[in-house]
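Model: Ready when you are.
Researcher: Fold this.
Model:
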Amino acid sequence: VVAVVSVGAEQAAVRKSLLVPANFKETAPETYNVKFDTSIGEFVIRVTRAWAPNGADRFYNLVRNGFYDETRFFRAIPNFMVQFGIHGNPQVAKVWQNARIPADKVTQSNRKGFITFAMGASPDTRPTQVFINFRDNTRLDGMGFAPFGQVASGIEVVDKIHTGYGEGAPRGGGPAQGRVVAEGNAYLTKSFPKMDYIKTATIQP
């Protein structure tokens, strides 16, 4: 009984911490690995901070605090990339929408297996969403998309992520990002049952 209460308290503490983006300020190690346990298997991302320090620091803080746990690969486009990083709890997703990090210089190319923060109209509009390139997408380099890591193992797992829903509405049949933010995993699991997801993302020793 004590163990159950302890786990519940820990989970509640993690959820509470996710509501305060301003506290996510730790500097990441120069290199670190993140293991993703997903609905289709495991893969590991190796991050190199020197490539894009702001992105590497934000990713490190998000992973350490469990932000990506139970999040969905909500935008997976064949022969392009797979995107994730909208929290499954709408309350959490909302507070992170404008928690942006400064721009990073593009020092690496968006090649197959490289991971990069998604952004809006400019590189200083990056909160939590990231994508992994399914192929070489070097045209993104000139747009300011700065890779901060790459798949170190399990690229075959990444390649298996379900892409059947394609681009989101209104351009395609996939989920509308506005609804993902507003309704979270409840919307995704009901409307897109084949969508793959992250069980846990953890920093490796």
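Researcher: Now this one.
Model:
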Amino acid sequence: MALDLEEQENLANLKSFWARYGNYIIGVITVVLLAYAAFNLWGWYQRSQAADAGKLYETLINAVTKNEKDKTYLAADDLQKKYGGTTYAAMGNLVAAKIAMDSNDAAKAQAYLKWTANKASDDSFRALAQLRLLGLLIDQGTEASLKEADQLLKEKAVKGFEPLWIERRGDWYLVQKKIPEARTEYLKAMKAMQSDKAFPEDARGLLKVKIDAVGGM
């Protein structure tokens, strides 16, 4: 009988506890389950997006190999619109920009590079697009393009790409025939490259050619 009374007391305590905290506990469990489900759903969505984007990027590359510019641009545009958060979108835009530049379509190349420079999910692709865009604007050498390049160069470089950013500033001066300023920037860029072993020797070699052209070390 004592055991029965103890069980009844425990049951009464449990009922009292559940009456007070039951809704709260159910709420917490629900939130946790929903969060877990959302996490898994988001992971599935990201994997699905990446897989679909990868197929579309493959379509783009096939179009490039067949020299089908219109299909290349169409695939790049679709990657932007449908899968802009994936790295495939940035990769596709960089490829499309290269095709446009090779076709002397500077406006289209700039459009792809600007999208990638502003919206790429990967910093490396964003930096590469910025540097290519700067090269394109500087090569144009117009008052408007140099002004745009100047504004971009005033922004902070993506970490790890600072020497190339400095080098582009040197290019910006050089195209305006400001030789002393260009040399100063090139020397700064070389110093930065030499202190960062991640840069390939080819990059230093190209910069050395520019330095020699403006007066040497």
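Researcher: Key takeaway?
Model: The chain is about 85% helix and 0% strand.
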